[in-house]
Every structure is written in structure tokens, then in C-alpha cells.
Amino acid sequence: MFLESDSGAEAADDTQALPAIECPLSKAGIDKTKLKPFEEVEDYIQFLERSDRAEWQKPDLVVKALALKGTETVVDLGCGSGYFTFRLSKAVPQGKVIAIDSQPEMVRHIHRKVLTGEWPNVRAQVGEPDDPGLPSHADCVFVCDVLLPYQEFVVFVKP
Questions:
Q1: pLDDT for position 92
Q2: What is the Cα gyration radius of the chain?
Q3: What's the predicted TM-score (pTM) here?
Q4: Pairing state of beta strands 122-126 and 96-101?
Q5: Which of 14, 43, 74, 112 has minimal CB crowding within 10 Å?
């Protein structure tokens, strides 16, 4: 398969054929050279993905409680490192997950995981605090542990 990376280069792998994925940072007009140092971002990602989080948050039970049928479009608003994004992806194998975060570094992290080809139903995008760019066709908007900037997310969602 040929996947376009966020640098524009292609990586070859002949195991599957997937279309190139446009870099969500470029699409949002973000200069990748102005992002935080990756070491700092990696520390935050490790904090978000720490093993004890599953003990108290029980993410598999949370996703199960959503009672998804497997074909829905799910938005993970304030997705961070994708802690729930990739669990949601498994729950909707014939659907799709749109991971939205206001932090370009988190979107870049998810996008790089998507480029591996293991998560063909996941797309990441940068979402501004005042307009996260929710699709009109979402079946479920999932929000968890979002302190800022989407505290007023209810104004973006129609019942």
C-alpha cells in the first residue's frame, strides 16, 4: 500500500491497498514546524495512555455501554491521544470514527497511527474551540475527560 505521510512522502507496503490519507494538519493550515517538541508531546501521550487509567475508567465497558451496532459514524470530540478513538474504531468496523482535537500534536499522533493501515475507519482532524467541525451525519458524539476547550460542546450538537 502507499500511504502519504504528513511530510508528503510515501511509504511502501504491499500488504494492502488503501488510498493516501491527507494530512489533517496541512488541511487545517497548521505549520508542522511550529508544534511543540515531540518529547513533551510523547510524555503527555504516555500519561493519557497509562495502564492504571483502564482500572478506574473501564474504557471497554464505556464503549460497550454505547451499544453501537457497528455501522455508525462516531465523533470522538477532544480525542487527545486516541485512548477511546481506537476502541471506538473496533466497535464500528463498518462505520467510521472521526477524532477531533484542538491540539495539533494529538491530531498528528492519531494520524500517524492511521497511516499504519490498522485503522482504516479512523480520520483525525483539528477542531477549533468555537467550531470543532462536527459532521452533520454523526450518529454519536463521544466526549470524555474534556476539560478544555470543548466545555460548551452541547451547543454544537443537535438533539
A1: 98
A2: 15
A3: 0.72
A4: parallel
A5: 14
Fold of 58-159: Rossmann fold (3.40.50)
Task: With residue 104 as reference, give the H or E element that holds it.
Answer: helix 104-114
- Asked if 77 and 141 touch (Cβ cutoff 8 Å), the reply is yes
pLDDT of 51 higher than 80: yes
φ and ψ at 104, to 5 degrees? -55, -35
Q: Whose CA is closest to 36, among 99, 100, 108?
A: 108
- Separation between Cα atoms, residue 106 and residue 62, nearest integer Å: 22
Find out whether 49 and 145 touch, Cβ atoms under 8 Å.
no
Give tens-digit pLDDT for 71-90. Answer: 999 999 999 999 999 999 99
What span, in angstroms and rounded, lies between the C-alpha atoms of 14 and 151? 43
**Strand order, beta sheet including 140-143:** 122-126, 96-101, 73-77, 140-143
HEC readout, 9-30: CEEECCCCCCCCCCCHHHHCCC
Write down the pLDDT at residue 48: 85
Q: So where are the chain's domains?
A: 58-159
Q: How far apart are CA 72 and CA 138, in angstroms?
A: 8
